[in-house]
Fold each of these.
Amino acid sequence: MLRLAGRPVLPCLMLSVAMVNVGRTQGLTSPTADEILARMVVKNAERRAALEHYVSERTYRVEYKGTGGEHFGEMRVHAEYSAPDQKRFTVVSEAGSKLICEKVLRRLVEGEQEATEESNRRQAMLSAGNYNVELVGTEQIDGIRAWVLKVSPKVSTKFTYRGKVWVSEDDFAVMRVHGEPAKNPSWWINRTSFDSRYVRRGEFWLPGKNVSTSHVRIGGEATLTIDYGEYQTLAGKAVRSGEEVSAGVARSREAQLVGGKVGLATLPQ
């Protein structure tokens, strides 16, 4: 056996070769962008079916600096979600510019309510039907390894965007979205960018913080910050896999047929 300084080097060489082979194998078995997206859609559906209720106290804040000086508006909002798609927003307090609170923040909350409607939710959903995706790398966020996808909408609407999405390798959940709206929200806005972060609460991922920056055509910059706060109440059923859900539906259908009932069991949407 070849020795160097009295120690065998062959095992080291073998380890190096083995690690190269492992790297090659991992490279060959890495999922494609389409596979990541497809798996993410399935896992999101499973988590959505399991989530029943949550409550959070959100803070919306806009800071403007420009030709008109410096202004701010802040609104605290009580948000409550109940499955399958009921969201209720209650304004708790307002501070700062009344104009910003009335014309910007309240409309923003109304827009969030509108986005929860089924047709709009489907337009905004990150899926193969709505977006083109490309895998551009991997990164770590808070110690969790994530795939980085470059996304662009197939149809530009006020609910779609272009940019990058970080998807957890652990459970195929969206951890971060950084980009810009597919359509300019207003003529008065020259360009807008946003950075949305999500937090894990048990088996669920929920919005953590959003920072959006808009450049105004007449001069100036507006920064919107949404802090979603602590989720004080979080109730959910155990997240079931697609196979478990399908098996449960099959058993329900069989029971209905045996009992002579009309109709089929339906999955939560």
Note: The chain has five helices and 13 strands.
Amino acid sequence: MTSEREEREGDKKATVSTRGGRGKEQRGSALTRVAKIVEIVGTSDKSWEDAAMVAVEEARKTIRGIRGIKVKDMTARIDPASGRIVEYRTSVNLSFGVLDDDDD
């Protein structure tokens, strides 16, 4: 199933064409994949950057084709006795392509 519509915004015009069923979109000659985004939280006792890496490494165990991340939030747990950070937490959105039967 293919649908097309024209969108106008001021003097700009865009034609949007979508193909149903396979999770792909055709625009001109370029094939665009559909991406899925999931949120995951990584923790580390070293840094927020390390916590983000932990999140990606853990996600790679079950998710193939991770294309990028967006850091949503960074928090930390503080030791009340010392006032020091004891755990860094980084919440990230992971994006990865939706696979076809053809991609296996």
Note: The helical segments are 48-59.
Amino acid sequence: MRVQPGGLPTIVPGQRVQHVPAIVTEEQAIEQLLHSPRLPEAVRRLQAVTQAEAQKRRYFYEVITEHQKAEFINGEIVVQTPVKLRHLATSENLFTLLQTYVRRHNLGVVFHEKVLIVLTRNDYEPDICFFGQEKASHFTPDQTKFPAPDLVVEVISESTEAIDRGIKFEDYALHGVTEYWIVDPTAETIEQYLLQEGAYRLVVKVKTGTIASVVVAGFEIPVRAVFDGNEHLAALQAILAG
């Protein structure tokens, strides 16, 4: 896997998280090229790279199957390895709570893992994503490619954490995903980020208590309901009774 992730976000509540070094380096490189006789050659090379990447992306769309969890990231096809039981249970717990709440209140749609999010350059299959009614109303039964969601949840593992905190963190913000949760099934924590002025700001990082979505109006659950079976059942019953 040849994905070059950006820097990890600083975990400080209330702080806007940006990958400043990468942005500065990019701006400096462009400025230098604009004043360099090498600009035409650089443009030709970039065109060759983007054309080759577009061809590889078309191949990705042709070979990907519903039985794989695969993503296209920075010109590379990334096939995810099977997850651990802890990861699977955490993801399914949160998905069940969110989907049940969204369906009960007719707020949109929630997808779990096997949905392809197609952004400008990259294609992702997030663990959980939510689309409000405004976007969901345009979906068709045979649709296989979807735009940027309103909320994305990534459940991290050793093999995906750098991507979830790196390229996805930057890409989701770039494409206007309003809310981003990073869930750690080992540490049993949830980090909630909100998009502000084009960058994510960490709202909370919690292990206990409750967490409330901003995008999904009224969705508030005990943090432990994501990681504990009994807590999950109680929270699900509360949603159904509400």
Note: The two ends are 45 Å apart (CA to CA).
